[in-house]
Amino acid sequence: MQRALQAAVPEFESLEIEVDPSGTPHLKAGYRNWRSTPSTQYETDFSDGTLRLIGLLWTVIKAPSNAGVLLLEEPELSLNSAIVKVLPSMFAMAQRSNDLQIVLSTHAPELLDEEGISPKEILILRVTDDGTTADLLSDLDHPMDNIELGLPTSDVIHQLIAPHELQGLIDSSSR
What's the predicted TM-score (pTM) here? Predict the structure, then answer.
């Protein structure tokens, strides 16, 4: 995990667990700087993105070695877009090494437009008057035509799931 954090977080050097006098464990990170010794930060000082990345890495690295399912809701939140772009590869490696199925929800173009993600792997959820429907993107003719014409998958999905009456959002903010 430390190597991954060093690659993703600027100036990150080390991560360890430190137990306070009451017995509560805390994350302690060292960061390179102009001083001879690294500066120290505890989890209360970490950015949201660093905390989420630590959580994702911990979850993927510590995934059970037996077959299972990992559910992730919008794993891209608070992460740099360059990091988000490598999440599919990281998840694919975890799936292969742990016989793990990963199911995630996202609106992130960086994930949806990843070449390694097939329309056969994307489930579109849409709210209707009768409840929520779920369709594989690959089963929807018109959207697949647009993808075959070269439109980004994220744009095609946005057209399918975007709320229709957003003017009310703008109008309500002017009151």
Answer: 0.81
